[in-house]
Amino acid sequence: MSSVPAKTLGQRIRYYRKKVGFSIKSLASIVEISPTVLGRYETDAREPNTLILMKLASALNVTADALLGLEPHPDLIAQNSDESDWLRIFRKLNCLGRDRALEYVSEMSEMPKYTAP
Question: For 9-68, CATH number?
Fold first, then answer.
């Protein structure tokens, strides 16, 4: 398990944002804050409240503990460009969309015509 090379909350937010490929503007939009406020979080000029911290963790697909530096979190690394595309698209979905996508993929994984040999 690799650890995140970031020492502060702001550095960890920035690390995970870049890891998933979000711009400041796109992540701020998902979390429903301004890009300026997100920038201040990333530079440790401000700290997010609990609700925003939870929204950030959800959007970045990590736990709040990982953002706070309380637990090591393995990097989610795609093995190839197809997996990178899947992760990028999946991370854009809300919880309902993610559940639905997992249902479809799970069903397809049981069908021989869709599974790898």
Answer: 1.10.260.40
